[in-house]
Amino acid sequence: MNVIKLFDYQEDMKERIEKALRLHRSVMAQMPTGTGKTVLLASVVESFLREHSNCNVWIVAHRRELVSQIQETIERVFSKITPSLFTIKEGNFSKTHPSSLTLKGGSTSHPDPLTLRGEGGNRPTRCSEPLRSKVGGPSKVSPDCAGWDRLGATCLRPADGLGATSASSVNPNSDMMPIKAVSIQWLSKHYDEIEEEPGMIVIDEAHHALAKTYKEMWERFPKAKFLGLTATPCRLNGKGFTDLFDVLVQSWSVPEFISKGRLATYDFVSIKSDGVTQRLIDSLQKRGADGDYQNKEMDMLLNKKPSIERLYRSLEEYGKDRKGIVYAINISHANAIAEFYREHGIAAVAIDSKTPASERRMLIERFKASSLSFSKITPSLFTLKEGSTSHPDPLTLRGEGGNRPTRCSEPLRSKVGGPSKVSPDCAGWDRLTDTCLRAGDGLGATCLRAADGAAPIQVLVNVDIFSEGFDCPDVEFVQLARPTLSLAKYLQMVGRGLRVAKGKKNCVIIDNVGLYRVFGLPSQVWNWNAMFEGKLKVGKRKETPKDREFFLMNGEQDDIQIHPDSEMMMVMSHEELLQTIQYREFVNSRGEFAIIKLPDGKMTVVNRQGEQVLEPGDYYDMKLLDGNILFYRHCRKEVCYYDLLSGAIIDDGPNVYDVPKVVTLEGWEFIKYGDVYMSRTYEHFSWPYCPSKYDLFNFGDYLIYRYNYLVDSGCQEWYYYEGGNGLMMKATIDSNRVCFLRGDYEHVYWKCATLRCGCIVVMDSKQDYYLVDSYLKKTYIGCNNPKNENEDLHIVMPRLGKKYYDEMMLQEKKKEASEMILLHEKSVAGHVELYQAGKKWGIKVDGRVVVPPLYRSIAQPVGAYCAFEEIPSYWGIMTLKGKVIVDAKYEKVEIRDGGIAVVTDITGKTQTIYLK
Q1: 489: part of which helix (H) or strand (E)?
Q2: CA-wise closest residue to 779 among 764, 787, 769, 789
């Protein structure tokens, strides 16, 4: 009996998945892109159906395109095993099953026993063919629902109790494969019509599983097992998958797959941080509904000729004569890239969701059939259709000089100058990648076709078509022309180039949008379990000041001169990649660290970026303990405990007496070793006792420990003088407040000052002072022994204090003005009401009390203001939030539109007050 052949890592994954499914109802499995998830899926499904012969299996995808791709892959996989066991297309079958996704109410439309296609008799009804509604009529066929016969398995349905042709009449030893592939969109619309229950539901590309959309499957089919497959178990919003799946099963990491030859090596080139493209991307501020960059803003900044020219230059420099894929922002961007590449002699074609399916399939097959070696397109590659010689002058390709050819997909002009219909014989560059030229002067149009009838395609430019489910192992370069904040999208894109293929040496990843700076290299080891549980969010970038006007003025990019050498840089070559991973043996891993054995037998520890955090040595009994603490022995007798976060030795020697533990005090981690409490910093700081919670103050990004007595810290302490409008003064004693910064495992600081903007000033052990902003970025501002006035805190601190005080006041004014506008709108809309409690009056906005009942009387609001009477005949004016802006000392108050008030005092004198 033949079975699906798996690699060793697939066998391991299959065994662990099946074990997890026996213990849990719902399992998610992670394997990197290009390592054969679909083949593993088929093998798991095969084993499941062998054990549960009366069950059906549904494969659910999030896109229609993936449904057909799953069909083709499943059919290809099962066609390689015993035909008598699994029926493909018009083969044999064994036992009769109910129809896949049989609708409630059934059907009795077949009076005779059903037989398979090709076996004579009536044709069996496809599950995707007219499904019967409750009243017996046919329902519409959905392209989202791939029937059994499309999958390569035949779907039979009993008619009037007569059943289907007996298995023994065809092949007594064969089994039928009851598999159904559907999209989640189709399934969501037909739940109420489905009568049967599946034994297992497999969710392909399960990182797209949204709780609201997919949760219904769990509720409607309580007896079914669920298996989700993905390369990237993470979401852009940082939420996990534990609302749908019980456990995550992980395969090898990408470095392991590369080191063992299961994935290809790569060269990674990226744009420089100070280049024009990076500055353009840094200026992106808007976000789409999915939390990623807004498509419109990306298109506005990057879908420009200079940007596309830089894409071409980088491809020429690093991917010349290679076959590959380009990821574009949208359809317009993809077409623009493909057209520019063709103009410069590269056989490029754009594919998107609007490309007809048959044409898309044809172009992909031509791309797959194209060789790995390309050179520039030359006119000799093409011949004239029908041998035409209607052009009096030699025709040349774009970019080669001569007349510029017109694409056939552009409107051809009629004799009167209007557009004529495009000939179906001329599909144009952007569709078929053949050259389409048009002669001028009324000589008509002539098409250039490849001499062999199908010109090779070197480059496929796509818009989210090849992010998932695309399998072409000999892709030699991947060009990223689309920024993203999604780790899943990034790894899915670069993963298309990491498949191994005969004749393929390596892949070049051309990162034209700086994704390396957001996510790192594709071979980074990711903490998938933390992302699965929703405890880790990757890829969120800190905003930096942008000079958007420079790039958004008319013709902004056309005038920018960039030297070719300044745009791209080599991040890592495939030789360097192999040096870092080829000879490593992964001994153990836990959390963010792994123990590695080097080729010379020495041991070390690396983080997820592959950086060594411990000097290699001849260590014994290395163990990773809770809280990122390492245990090891220098020799047989000496013991060492090492803090992997700070790089500090907790204790070592032959007389180590206790095991360190990580404890949390006021939301901050410390190490408890015996009776001593240590900070997790390389610079040592400890207490011989547990510090009181009244001495620790957690401010989120930093923690303060305050001594209850005077200390000789050497740190100046500065504070705002009350009523000084931003004036800062120096205290007469040193600061007694120790400061720890979030994520800083090296230094212990003393706190110098808190500025009005929320920034702080700290002093390090060298008595240098730093301004720490809200992003924890440190900027040097001075020292205790200044060499000039720019380092003298007596000059620097008053200047900084005043600057940030003024900024805070400006922000408060803007905030107050915004609130006043909102209150004015609410007042006009009738959302403000006066209410009485006892004899006093107050104000409610949207039903919520904003001004408690404190006043004798309140007049009806005018805009964002209202008059109030505190005591009889003493009126004032306040905002609808209760802020008094005119004291209650006037006999009469009249508020007018535009923020103007006329007040009259007890003497009868009137004056006008501008409230804004």
Answers
A1: helix 487-495
A2: 769
